[in-house]
Design goal:
Number of strands: 8
Distance between the termini: 48 Å
Order of helices and strands: HEHEHHEHEHEHHEHEEHH
Shape: globular
Structural class: alpha/beta
Strand order of the largest sheet: 1-2-3-4-5-6-7-8
Number of helices: 11
Largest sheet: 8 strands, parallel, barrel
Radius of gyration: 19 Å
């Protein structure tokens, strides 16, 4: 049976760390699911690592749905969450409901994720949850706000630290089943994780979160630059290049296909 948001809460209560990664296609989703990943996020990072955009902002809802449908076909057990792209939920609650509803209806995902915890977003989360749509929150560094925040670590001052803490609490009160904490001081992440009943999933937020998420392309060494908080567990960029070069040499030298 697929993992549910309730099971993630139980893992926090039992002190079991949650393993999360991004997925953007059928093959990667199948491999990651088979490897035992708990939560697969069809993140709007696909705009950068798959579609070649400079930021996540150009990504459309239709593009997200297209990739999420492929991911769904590769999953048997992991909880599948899909990002709401930029300007598909900020204009009004009605817009957010329409976008989230399309994702659940057209892709088979179990939940959506959106960025921010300021009052309007917290209210949107509350109303989505009341409508039966599970929501994963996201505070700290929010990439859809790149033109305001850049990609710098957030929460380094008392004022911003307090704001992020309050946003995380507001998302819990609104009914979010978990919160992503991105690129914030580990001390702040630890305080939030200790305070919240719901799980926290860190990315560049230290060891004290209830789980961790990375962009899979960073983990596998398929991106040119890796964020300072990520870790490469493989170098597929080099492996793939070498394999293709070897194939090219065999073709040019008439060694492939074999006689």
């Amino acid at each position: 049976m697929p993992i549910t948001p309730q099971q993630l809460l139980e893992r926090k209560q039992q002190g079991m760390a949650i393993v999360a990664l991004t997925a953007y296609d059928y093959v990667s989703a199948k491999l990651l699911d088979r490897a035992g990943v708990d939560l697969l996020l069809v993140g709007d990072s696909l705009g950068m690592v798959v579609l070649g955009y400079e930021t996540t902002l150009p990504l459309t809802l239709d593009e997200m749905i297209h990739h999420a449908k492929a991911v769904r076909r590769g999953i048997e057990k992991a909880l599948m969450v899909v990002d709401l792209p930029f300007l598909t939920y900020q204009e009004s609650f009605q817009q957010a409901m329409h976008s989230a509803g399309r994702i659940l209806k057209e892709t088979g995902a179990q939940a959506v994720k959106l960025e921010g915890g300021y009052p309007e977003i917290a209210e949107t989360v509350r109303r989505l949850v009341l409508a039966g749509i599970p929501v994963l929150g996201h505070v700290g560094l929010t990439p859809q706000s790149v033109h305001q925040l850049g990609y710098r670590k957030q929460g380094n001052t008392p004022e911003t630290s307090d704001r992020i803490f309050k946003e995380a609490v507001a998302l819990q009160e609104a009914g979010a089943f978990a919160v992503v904490l991105e690129h914030i001081p580990s001390e702040l992440a630890a305080e939030i994780s200790k305070t919240l009943v719901i799980p926290t999933i860190g990315i560049g937020a230290g060891l004290h979160c209830d789980g961790q998420v990375l962009v899979t392309h960073d983990l596998l060494g398929m991106t040119e630059r890796v964020p300072p908080f990520a870790k490469r567990y493989a170098n597929l960029q080099e492996t793939i290049t070498q394999a293709v070069q070897a194939y090219g040499e065999d073709v040019r030298d008439r060694r492939f296909p074999p006689a």
